[in-house]
């Protein structure tokens, strides 16, 4: 089974350029079909930012009443790609059991060894 990939392009532009961007047909089509939602994202890491140093991201995003946990890994990916694992979870706290078979698994086993799952929040 292949690892799911996220392909992402981020653009930096001035607010004055936004009207020109919205004239691009593909952007207009996306904008017409898009729904507005409010999302709250919380990023988790150790006190010493060890996940970040290893190119890993552990995030829980709340969308309405749903919580989506995302694990992202930068290490094995090309410029616009990264490995990504996403799961719906029951609460705003990460479910470290879902790290099995992800890039986070070796780190969780080594650092937390099932007894301590201390993570700090950022964002």
Kindly report the average pLDDT value: 79
**Cα separation of the termini:** 33 Å
Order of helices and strands: EHHEHEEEHE
Alpha-carbon Rg, integer: 17 Å
Please provide the count of β strands.
Answer: 6
In the predicted model, the low-confidence regions spanning at least 5 consecutive residues are 113-119
Report the β-strand fraction as a percent range. Answer: 25-35%
Order of neighbouring strands in the sheet with most strands: 1-5-4-3-2-6
**Largest beta sheet, briefly?**
6 strands, antiparallel
- How large is the count of helical segments? 4
Shape: globular
Q: What structural class do helix, strand and pairing data support?
A: alpha+beta
Indicate the percent of residues in helices: 10-25%
Task: Walk me through this protein's architecture.
The structure is a single chain. The chain is 20% helix and 31% strand. It contains 4 helices and 6 strands. The longest helix has 9 residues, at 25-33. The relative contact order is 0.19. Residues 113-119 have low confidence and may be disordered.
Looking at this protein, list some descriptive labels:
alpha+beta, about 120 residues, six-stranded antiparallel beta sheet, 6 strands
Secondary structure: elements and pairs:
Elements lengths: L4 E3 L10 H4 L3 H9 L5 E7 L4 H4 L2 E8 L2 E8 L7 E9 L15 H8 L7 E3 L1
Antiparallel strand pairs: 1-5, 2-3, 2-6, 3-4, 4-5
Task: Summarize the structure in short.
By secondary structure, this protein is an alpha+beta fold. It has helices at 18-21, 25-33, 50-53, 105-112, and strands at residues 5-7, 39-45, 56-63, 66-73, 81-89, 120-122.
């Amino acid at each position: 089974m292949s690892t799911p990939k996220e392909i992402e392009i981020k653009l930096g532009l001035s607010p004055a350029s936004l009207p020109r961007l919205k004239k691009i047909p593909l952007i207009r089509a996306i904008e017409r079909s898009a729904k507005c939602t409010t999302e709250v994202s919380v990023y988790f890491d150790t006190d010493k930012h060890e996940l970040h140093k290893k190119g890993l991201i552990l995030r829980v995003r709340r969308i309405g009443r749903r919580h989506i946990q995302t694990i992202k890994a930068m290490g094995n990916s090309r410029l616009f790609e990264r490995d990504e694992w996403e799961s719906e979870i029951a609460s705003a706290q990460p479910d470290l059991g879902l790290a099995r078979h992800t890039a986070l698994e070796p780190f969780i086993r080594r650092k937390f060894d099932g007894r301590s799952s201390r993570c700090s929040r950022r964002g």
